[in-house]
Amino acid sequence: MRLEHRSGGDRRTLAADVEVADTFLSRARGLMFRRSIPDDYAMVFQFDDAERRDLHMVFVPFDLDALWLVGSEVVAKKRLRAWRGIGAATADTVVELPAGAADGVEPGDTVHVVD
C-alpha cells in the first residue's frame, strides 16, 4: 500500500509504507511511544463519517505533518510539534506523516491510499 498525492494532474508518492489504524486500540495509541518513523511512512485513520477529528502529540517525541481529508480531498493540513502539538478539523480520514513529507500538499488537493 502507498499514499499518493494528486494536484493539477501531477502525482507523487507521499509514503510507500502505510499503516492503517483500524481498531479502537490502534486509533487510540496512534504513534505514541514510538521513537521514530521511517521517512516513507504514513499512519492512516479511516472513519465512517466526516466529524471533528482531534490529534494530540502527547508521548510522540518527533514532529509530524497531519492531513485531514473528506473523501480524498485535503481539507486541512498542520505541522504538529513533538510532545505538545494539537490539531483538529472535520474529516473522515486523518493521515500522519513525518514532518516535511506533506510539503506541497494544500487544501483542495487529493490524497489516496493505493493498494
UniProtKB/TrEMBL annotation:
Gene3D superfamilies: Protein of unknown function DUF192 (2.60.120.1140). This is DUF192 domain-containing protein. It comes from Halobellus clavatus.
